[in-house]
Specification:
Blueprint lengths: L14 H11 L3 E2 L11 H12 L12 H15 L9 E4 L1 H13 L5 E6 L5 H7 L3 E6 L9 H7 L4 E7 L11 H11 L5 E5 L19 H4 L2 E6 H5 L7 E4 L2 H14 L5 H13 L4 H17 L6 E2 L7 E5 L8 H12 L1 E2 L1 E2 L12 E5 L4 H12 L2
Parallel strand pairs: 1-11, 3-4, 3-5, 5-6, 6-7
Antiparallel strand pairs: 2-8, 7-8, 9-10, 10-13, 12-13
This protein binds glutamine.
Amino acid sequence: MVQIYSKLPGIGPSIFSVMTQMANEHKAINLSQGFPDFDCAPELLELVKKSYESGYNQYAPMPGLLELREQIAAKVNRLHGADYHPDHEVTVTAGGTQAIFTAISAFVQANDEVIIFEPAYDCYAPAVKAMGGMVKYMPLNPPDFAIDWTQVQKLTNGNTRMIIINSPHNPTGMVWNEEDLQQLQKITRNTNILILSDEVYEHLIFDEKKHLSLAKYPELKERSLIVASFGKLFHTTGWKMGYCLAPEALMKEFRKIHQFMVFSVNTPMQHAIAEYLKEKENFEDLGILFQEKRDYFRKLISGSRFQLMDCHGSYFQLLSYQDISEEPDTDFAASLVKEHGVASIPVSAFYSKNTDHHLLRFCFAKKEATLEKAAVALMKV
Ligand code: GLN
């Protein structure tokens, strides 16, 4: 029998796959995995169809179609006043996750340390570990999941290669403020620390808050790789389309890995998205749409025994069940599926060590009817 030395011992199917499968098995309303249950704009579908039929069916250039990179650079410039050169500083990826894995593999070497704030989206730490890097976890605690910058400072040392950040934040819906950015700037100044900024929920931001992209801060921009997602932008998570922005020197390394990992991504989609972006000046309608959904979901369950946590961005609402049960969150989430027909994500899945704040994450990127059905069930818990 061949001996296998796993690079990722102890890692099983992701919590998103597990809960979605459980939801399907029990025909539960699936508010677990984050994806909309409504479709994208019909004009975009038309453009995709046109693209396939026009014969755009062979490899795209390795970094992505130039027209699309130009549209991305123009969008980032309009929104954040930042310049990224389409030739050398923008790369189209197969979704946010690929961009994140590529960025980590391009820069993290054996024994490098990477700081991750947790709860954290599940793909960061495994990528670091697969590269032989070491994760230093910085815990964020309810109710506000605010960042203790003195602690972050203590975690950094000469071996710190990267800090991974994510605002608006999955799973908490927390959004970074100006002070956080200033602190990050202070901590990384005169170091070789790179920043990987997962900004896939950039437009899903509420309550008059503004998304503070690292692209806006010249000193941070210089050391940052920024990841964005067309899945979140167009309600097309299954298309697996996204992009990465970085200054030329960083992007050069990113592309070395990208070209051997995927070479290039879906050509017809790139044509369609490039065309579509030409017509789309801004994405403020997204923030409005999802704020309405957040408010509607919160209103529907406001009399329930769950406690609503704050949510300022992303499409996730955390609910505390501490007044309902003392069960571990994975057990509580499973019984919610089996007995009440609603699937969510237990927040302990976003922590490296046993950390259970009795919180569940619900995705509200759903039709009103779906949220209403889920709320009827949640009100009975
Ligand atoms: N980003 C999605 C979420 O947080 C999940 C994507 C996935 O299943 N990998 O739910």
